[in-house]
């Protein structure tokens, strides 16, 4: 463990204030969307048909448009929601070539969809939401019943293998907990169970992917898709609110 701590402090020094993941600057993993794992898997697993109305929460500069590729043109609309005014010009420039793409400045907790969406997804943005319960609640509110909720993000390894998690050792769990906290990522073990509880037909795929700038390390991530039930599970949301308030 002493060796690991020395390794960890060395990484913190190497990835200091100049890193886009530094605590001196509000980090946003989507700024590295071109290198983060699982994005293409998410698009494929959404299973959307032509004419779908789609919303992306916290789009950053709109990098996911590159991942959509030719399928982007078949969508009826893609609404890119981004709260930060400093990054919006890049999103506007990326979207200008696509008549079916609209950029909206709003927080993921305050956004209101003009019409129920067929799909709402988060690409490495749920871990940026301190109030992630509100983010999921609002994402489900934007979805029509039977619509698809999709998420690709980092996750905290579990000590015990379960139906939804792969097992990771103590060192792996310790390292990634330190890493996520250092870079102000709100990665919670509660995310994945909440996703299964809030949706029908939940499906998860886990993996280890290359972390930007650190090819020797593999960061744990997951790709989740679930279907919004006909009745929103208010009791689940209320329970999540209570647990979230207790942790603050």
What would you say this structure looks like, in words?
The two termini are 29 Å apart. This protein has 8 helices and 7 strands; from the N terminus they run ααβαβαββαβααββα. The protein has 248 residues and is an alpha/beta fold. The protein has helices at residues 2-14, 39-46, 64-68, 88-95, 132-142, 170-182, 191-198, 234-247, and strands at residues 53-57, 77-82, 101-105, 117-123, 143-154, 200-211, 214-227. It is globular and about 50 Å long.
Q: How would the global form be characterised?
A: globular
Q: What's the pLDDT, averaged over the residues? A: 82
CATH domain fold name: Rossmann fold
Q: Helix tally? A: 8
Helix content: 25-40%
Give the CATH architecture.
Answer: 3-Layer(aba) Sandwich
| Poorly predicted residue ranges | 6-32
| Rg over C-alpha atoms, rounded to the nearest angstrom | 18 Å
**N- to C-terminal distance:** 29 Å
Count of strand segments? 7
Strand line-up across the major sheet = 3-2-1-4-5-7-6
So, the CATH homologous superfamily? Vaccinia Virus protein VP39
Which range does the strand content fall in?
15-25%
Structural class: alpha/beta
List the secondary-structure elements in sequence, H or E. HHEHEHEEHEHHEEH
The CATH C-level name is: Alpha Beta
């Amino acid at each position: 463990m002493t060796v690991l701590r020395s390794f960890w402090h060395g990484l913190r020094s190497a990835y200091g204030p100049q890193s886009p993941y530094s605590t001196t600057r509000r980090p946003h993993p989507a700024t590295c969307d071109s290198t983060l794992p699982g994005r293409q898997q998410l698009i494929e697993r959404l299973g959307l048909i032509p004419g779908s109305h789609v919303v992306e929460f916290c789009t950053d500069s709109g990098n996911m448009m590159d991942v959509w590729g030719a399928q982007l043109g078949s969508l009826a609309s893609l609404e890119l929601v981004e709260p930060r005014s400093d990054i919006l010009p890049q999103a506007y420039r990326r979207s200008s070539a696509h008549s079916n793409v609209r950029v909206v400045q709003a927080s993921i907790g305050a956004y209101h969809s003009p019409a129920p969406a067929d799909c709402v997804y988060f690409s490495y943005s749920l871990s940026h939401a301190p109030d992630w319960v509100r983010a999921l609640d609002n994402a489900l509110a934007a979805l029509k019943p039977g619509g698809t909720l999709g998420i690709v993000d980092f996750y905290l390894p579990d000590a015990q293998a379960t139906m939804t998690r792969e097992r990771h050792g103590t060192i792996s769990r310790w390292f990634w907990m330190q890493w996520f906290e250092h870079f102000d990522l709100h990665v919670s073990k509660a995310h994945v169970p909440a996703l299964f509880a809030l949706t029908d037909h939940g499906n998860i795929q886990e993996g280890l992917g290359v972390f930007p700038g650190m090819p020797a390390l593999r960061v744990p991530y997951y790709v989740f898709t679930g279907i919004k039930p006909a009745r929103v599970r208010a009791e689940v949301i209320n329970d999540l609110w209570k647990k979230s308030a207790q942790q603050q």
